[in-house]
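Sample entry (526 residues):
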Amino acid sequence: MVVAAKNMSTSPPRPLPPNIADNAAALLREHQQIIWKRTDLLLSSLLEFEWALGLLLALWRSPRTWNGANSSVHPHVWAAIYLGGAILVAPILLALLRPGRVLTRHTIAIGQMLMSGLLIHLGGGQIEMHFQIFGALAFLAFYRDWHVLVTATIVTAADHLLRGILIPESVYGVAYASLWLTAEHAAFVIFEDIFLIGSCVQGVREMRGIAENRALLEHSYHDVEKQVEDRTAELKSAQAALMNSARTAGMAEIATSVLHNVGNVLNSVNISATIVADKLRLSEVSTLSKVSEMIVQHKPDLASFLTTDERGKLIPDFITDLAQCLGEEQSSMLGEVQSLSKGIDHIKQIVAAQQSMAKKSNVRTSVLPASLIETALNLQPPGLASDVQLQRHFADVPQLMLDQHKVLQVLINLVANAREAVMVRPAGKREITLSVGIISSAAGDRLRFQVTDNGMGIAPEHLTRIFSHGFTTKKDGHGFGLHSAANAAKEMDGSLSAISSGMGHGAIFALDLPVNPVEEGVSCKI
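Predicted structure, serialized as tokens:
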């Protein structure tokens, strides 16, 4: 386009490619048609004006003539009316019905020259009237078609020659005119023609240059437009690929989040399962089989064996102690199995929640917020209470409608991170404070879960990044836990924030959620 713009002032390179040359020729013809049609209407209107001017001239110079005592209208008046009208009929009709045609241009040129000759005749052949010829030729040059000037010159020369021989008074104002006078007038006309024809040729050359430059610009425009379309198609393809990649990445992120959250719960599930397995392996049930064998062996004399034999006398007390021991084992294993069942149920809910994300549906149930903190603590590895000083600050918050599994997902992450953060401190100085309560904010009342630790703290430059996907400061960390917790908070129309005074000063994590009171008729309670 820059090259085409430069060529606006200079002629474009030759030869042009065939398609551009054809377009340039079409544009040139279109421009010429506009000029020809406009000039047809202009010169046909000029003919009407000249006809009216001729009529006024005839009425002014010789309106009437006398023959003795009789007076009549001068022939010049009739010539102005009828001859002038006859001259302009064909040019006007063609200008209206066939504008822009070759025949129309030449007809108007002939009409202009004949009308000029009539005006010269009506003016008595005075020299001043001959300037009408030069003016008419100048107007005909508006066509930018030198062929029209040739036609006009031939008509003028023939008119002057014939009238100069037959009626020289009408053209030269004298009774006799030599051929040299006609030649002199023709020479003046030809002299003007040289400049006018040169002007027409130059005008057409400039029009052709403009048309060629416009064709080049249009060709460049179409090339650029095609390039834009190609680039747009490429961008759309790239956008589709990026959307597919984003979808794949999103699916991978969801899978990673699920695995991370499941992994947190599996730690406690695995420990509970190990404890149950150890208790079963070391259970006193095996000694019961030995007692059973002794009873079977002494079945015929069982009564005397239990009353007289030293070993038999111990069996009742042993069975009593064994029953108490087995009861304690059963109670302990039931607790571990319940913890195991809660962990498995939480894993199922994590997977189900992630599967239902596409439906954007949140399952809320009536639950005591404090109980969710206790559940999150129970799902931590055993020994948390012995390794860390736990402080609970629970306000009197009634049951609320919460998505308990997403809340648990966040709390488990926060408690696990707090436990890892305080383990850098010596035993006895590790503290985690868990609190829940209602706070007031600009958006209204909010339920706040808060986990505070006195652990390693967070560097100021990391506070704005800790919730980003993949960001972690741990050597064996993956950067998925806090990111998925923040996403879960957003899905519940809440927020997850962090505060820390710097390294070594601990950290505070707060989960803020909307307060949704329990609706009447809701019976699902946790």
